[in-house]
Amino acid sequence: MPAATPITAGEADLAAVRYDADGLVPAIVQEHGSGQVLMLAYMNAATLRRSLDSGRTVFWSRSRQEEWAKGDTSGDRQWVREAYYDCDGDTLLFVVEQEGKGACHTGERTCFFRRFGSG
After folding, report:
1. Within a domain: 94
2. Model-level pTM?
3. Which domain covers residue 74, as residue numbers?
4. Which residue, 5, 27, 45, 61, shows the most beta carbons closer than 10 Å to its own?
């Protein structure tokens, strides 16, 4: 099993993140090594801090209106290796080591398995 790697973020970095009217910011999740985009989810200030502090991705479920640590139910956990915020501070990027079958709740490795024009 991969090990957690907490990331120490400075207060200035955390303050640079811009949340939308609902207090959320999109978080792109990319696989370490392959560079494949696995998923996009949303974080609030608390789940961003939890992700950085714990070394595992924690998101805000817009449909359930609650926090969820990726993999607590499925076992398909994501171990944070690097974390970034973009130039505007309104999008996050997490580079993770994906454990288990994959990131998608459908059982696919990535949520981006459907291609336009392929069928």
Report:
1. yes
2. 0.92
3. 11-98
4. 27
